[in-house]
Amino acid sequence: MMGAENSEFNMRGGKIGRRAFLKGAAAAGLVGLAAYGGVRYTGYRSSGAKAKIVVIGGGAAGISAAARLMMILKEPDITIIDPSDKHFYQPGFTLIASGVYSPDEVYKSQADCIPSGAKWVKDSVVALDADKRIVTTSKGEKISYDFLVLTPGLVYDWDLIEGIDPKALGTGNAHCIYEHEGAIKTWDAIKKFVKNGGKGIFTDTYTKHKCGGAPKKITLLTEHLARKNGTRERLSFNFYTASPELYDVPYYTPRLLEIYAERNVPINLNTRIVGVDTAAKKVHFRKTEKSADGSAKVSDFKEDYEFLHFLPPMGTPKFVRESGLSATNGSHAKEGWVDVDKGTLVSKKYPNIISFGDASNLPTSKTSAAIRKQVPIAVANLVSIMEGKQPQQIYDGYAACPIITDYGHVLMCEFDYSKKQKNTFPLPLLFDMSKEQYVAWLMKVYLLKPMYFYGMLNGLV
């Protein structure tokens, strides 16, 4: 298994340094992406449109959009509002929690990620008045805009799980990899769990959430690590999902179900976590079943555990929920997702607002791969609106979820709104992508992170 930067990777009997492989893979990958349409300059043209643009959020969506706008507009006036000191490559958290990445490999200084020429207001937004076109920060600064890129990401609603204190993640061996420190603690706990044995419980959550594959990845990686260490018989695994099925993309689901069955990891459907007694190491669940007459039967139960990995419910920041921009109907209305046209990414209520990424109600997965495809569409349509034209570019719902199935293989799931397979990488020309592949592991571990920091955040891919 890989560890720090000086580790070596075995390829058919030969060894190469990790840094050397990373550089070579990144270069080859970027060339391949360009050749196969991964680099898309959708609407990428010079524009003389002038307006004051405010970008709320300095994550993958906000930084990437700002970088493109800086290159397209001849006289850009762009302000980014974000309080962060560090910019994290969040898809790397799973790899920290499984010992593949070291903790310092997944972030850069936020100052180094802000596009040159853009103004950075290092603060949080607490209010948004879309009628007056004014944003208010936590320090009381009022910032006006002509056009708004609303990409604040999402927040974790920890208080919706009774007994969990986000400041004390890891207490009672209850862990979550969705934060950097949490991922670090999870890796330490997984090593002890694999060594000592016991009952492991892994869950997702009932709200829409980022990277729906992450709970599956950490389950399968932990199980494989136990086999690698010869301790699998000491451990039991159970996976609980609030969804009615393990995965909703038919092309990939059969193999994923096979993997869970082959590894003796029971799948419990329609079951959500409601609380954790960290002192007693008991997790409380609520299961919803539909009867023959269509009525819902709800039952609560609890399970003991030695190791728990869980997800908190997720939603939009408070200022978004209070802004009047959220969708008001649908099963996830309480979570406050920004109501946008799923094709153009323009707000349904205010045509001078573009929103995408984790905060939007786009009916697709919340992943950085999805954002990578949304950014050029959003920017092209924003520039068109600034020029007094109608938005023309249409997002097809593309998202990707590289589900790591073990140390060395990834099930590279790519799909669109229709939940049909939609490949952007040239891998299907050589491999059966309905099954886990070693080459997809190489992409996940070596290519995607440099592509994110040096390509996507610079507006290039």
Textual characterization of the structure:
With 461 residues, this protein is of the alpha/beta class. It has 2 domains: 40-154 and 316-398, FAD/NAD(P)-binding domain, CATH 3.50.50; 158-314, FAD/NAD(P)-binding domain. 26% of the residues lie in helices and 24% in strands. It contains 10 helices and 24 strands. A 5-stranded parallel β-sheet has the order 7-4-3-11-22, covered by helices on one side. A 5-stranded parallel β-sheet has the order 13-20-14-15-16, covered by helices on one side. The protein has a 3-stranded antiparallel β-sheet with strand order 8-9-10. Strand 15 (235-240), helix 7 (253-262) and strand 16 (267-268) form a beta-alpha-beta unit. Helix 1 packs across helix 10 and helix 2 (60-72) packs parallel to helix 9. The longest helix is centred in the C-terminal third of the chain and has 19 residues, at 368-386.
CATH architecture of the largest domain: 3-Layer(bba) Sandwich
What is the overall silhouette? globular
User: In terms of quaternary structure, what is this?
Assistant: single chain
Mean pLDDT: 91
- Give the amount of beta strand, in percent: 15-25%
Question: Which strand order spans the largest sheet, edge to edge or round the barrel?
Answer: 7-4-3-11-22
Strand segment tally: 24
Measured distance between first and last alpha carbons:
30 Å
Task: Count the DSSP helices.
Answer: 10
